[in-house]
What does this fold into?
Amino acid sequence: MNRRTFIKATGLPVGASALGFGTRLSAASQATPRAPVVVVGGGAFGAWTALHLREMGHRVTLLDAYGPGNSRATSGDETRQIRCGYGDRELYSRSALRAITAWRARQEEFGVPLMMQTGRLQLAPDWTAGMRATQATLARLGVATESLSHDELRKRYPQMNPEGVGVGLLEPGASVLRAKQAILAVATALTRKGGTVAVARAKPGRAQGRRLQDLELAGGERVAAEQFVFACGPWLPRLFPALLGNRIQVPGRDVLYFGTPAGDTRFSFPNFPNYSEDRCYGFASIDERGFKVCTTTGAPTFDPDTDERIVTPHEVRRARAYLALRFPALKDQPVIESRVCQLENTADEHFIIDRHPDFDNVLIAGGGSGHGFKHGPVLGEYIAKRALGEATDPAFDQMVRLARG
It folds into this structure.
């Protein structure tokens, strides 16, 4: 891939060109472009980081092996949740609260509806320490919650059987994000603002001292830059096995969408919130795609390149058993869509955002642990600042450092 071909390689999946965006740039970006930065990985962390870097005035290239919004990405699928409840992990609650504001502003800027306020209902036999901590944390932050008893749950949500559920914690301000559309919107905004998006598999190339000089692409071409951000999710342990092989695990998860009965809107947005309990979590039907059910177990390891994305009969049976108990009207409904996704988990479920210990110009950003997508607009700004050596929140820096615990 020569320079001319590379710069032209900005094609996005079908549908992205139909999205309308402004071209608002910061004053700095309208001047002479600053240092070139390459971001590897076009998912929730990488795409938002690239967009923020471009808006800060830097020449930015975003590389993804399969393209932004692809079905292999951890940020794939149609929907993701955004909520502020994190137990006593207040830094994440604060980040999610900022992200809600950012998502609203961005969807207005992009001209694409990306966030639907659904509420989030956490179910349990009795109050847990985590639920109490969530209540206390969100009260300090001014985020509304509502406690519901067994009888109140039965009255509020007659479409749900609360058998075995003693309490519910509702966060009314929680929402569902249109995940795939969001990544396409961010990537399209990046190109409209002068950034480059290319479909290419990249790995670290030549180094000199404590600086990485370039990336090597699959075809043997090289791409040089002054700063590099690796935000490629489940592929991070492969690119840096000695550093991340034992820090990030990649399990698989089956995601099922069950049809709702004809003419029955009880299980569709906005008539039922996001829900979660020990066995399962999911969403009401969004965009008529079906009632989403995700069990909390799956394949212990998953290869994002080669493993087939076909749900297993075992997980379908587990999901149906859950529906038979909790949502009896759906127990005989067909699976109308399905996905097989992967997570990229750290042991403590904290993100990893830190300098590579061997390279002063390489930043690692990953370990989304199933909850990273919602933070995208905020994390993108944070990662961009870290990559450029700008000041960031020291407490957050400590929480996401590589050398922890």
